[in-house]
Amino acid sequence: MSTLHTVNKSAFERNSLESCLSVCKANASVLLIEDAVVSALQNTTISEQISAAANTGVKFFALSEDLRARGLSDRRVMDEVTLVDYAGFVKLTTENDRVQNWL
Asked: What are the residue ranges spanned by the domains of the chain?
């Protein structure tokens, strides 16, 4: 059973992403939305955790509209994170068996 985990809080302010990563299994997907998109940036304190999870088969996505809304450049996004638009968000929800929100 595949799960899409959505995280909306910055990893630099809350532990939502860290909690999410502690239960993610291979083939899970993590979508970073709202303030959580800052976690997709390269060379941060959370980058190594995302890379490690990606190496186990967890797929990472970030909502491009939320990245732009925060004035962040997509050039700074980690290679392990795929940017998606709202249509991509919807597609992820239909491709997974369930959605788990991390607030």
From this structure: 3-102
